[in-house]
Amino acid sequence: MGDITRSWWLLLLRGLASILFGFLALIWPAITLFVLVTVFGAYALVGGVFELLAGFRHGAESRAWLIISGIFGILVGIATFIWPGITSLALLFIVAFWAIVTGVLEIVAGIRLRKTIDNEWMLIIGGALSVIFGILLLVWPVSGLLSLVWLVGIFAILHGVAEIALAFRVKNFTRRVGMP
Predict the structure, then answer these.
(1) What is the rounded CA–CA span in Å between residue 96 and residue 137?
(2) 55 Cβ neighbours under 8 A, 6+ residues apart
(3) Residues 147/6, Cβ–Cβ less than 8 Å
(4) Measured between alpha carbons, how far is 159 from 130 in angstroms, rounded to an integer?
(5) Per-domain residue ranges for the chain?
(6) What is the C-alpha to C-alpha distance for residues 129 and 160, in angstroms, rounded to an integer?
(7) Residue closest to 76 by CA, chosen among 22, 23, 37
(8) What is the pLDDT of residues 107-158, one digit of tens each?
(9) What are the pLDDT digits (tens) for 92-118?
(10) I want to staple 74 with a disulfide (CB 3.0 to 4.6 A). Which of 48, 63, 93, 127 is the partner?
(11) Is this prediction's pTM over 0.85?
(12) Cα(106)–Cα(11) distance, rounded to whole angstroms?
């Protein structure tokens, strides 16, 4: 418990960053979606090039895998720029599964912390919101990718508020038990 109480301010910063990201996504939804797809495409393309180069520099035992992985990364990067709509839909599914997995982990963490801190329900609610968000994305993927950006923005703000509330609870817990 000492590790989390000493770094309460990291939870606070994470919450503030989440709220800032959420507001930016709501203000500029089209730009947010375009940036997400573009950054992913650039990442896949550049990563593929570097893996391909590494494949030509390594020994025979890892060369084939690096070259294949590099070519695949380059193709994914190019496909992202040629078909940004399909990439957007794929990102929608990645975000959905990420939200569900992290939400479940936050719920588990909240349940485990219930004996250590008061009001652990804030972490559990943040996790539940994350799971609900992920499920909604899976149920209605065609409802529009701009609506995904809006959902991401709203989720980020609500999750940020939950993180900030948790940060202050952890900070107050530290003071109550006299930890440094």
Answers:
(1) 6
(2) 62, 63, 64, 65, 66, 67, 68, 69, 70
(3) no
(4) 8
(5) 2-177
(6) 11
(7) 37
(8) 888 888 777 777 778 888 988 998 998 898 888 886 657 777 887 889 899 9
(9) 888 789 889 989 988 888 888 777 777
(10) 48
(11) no
(12) 13
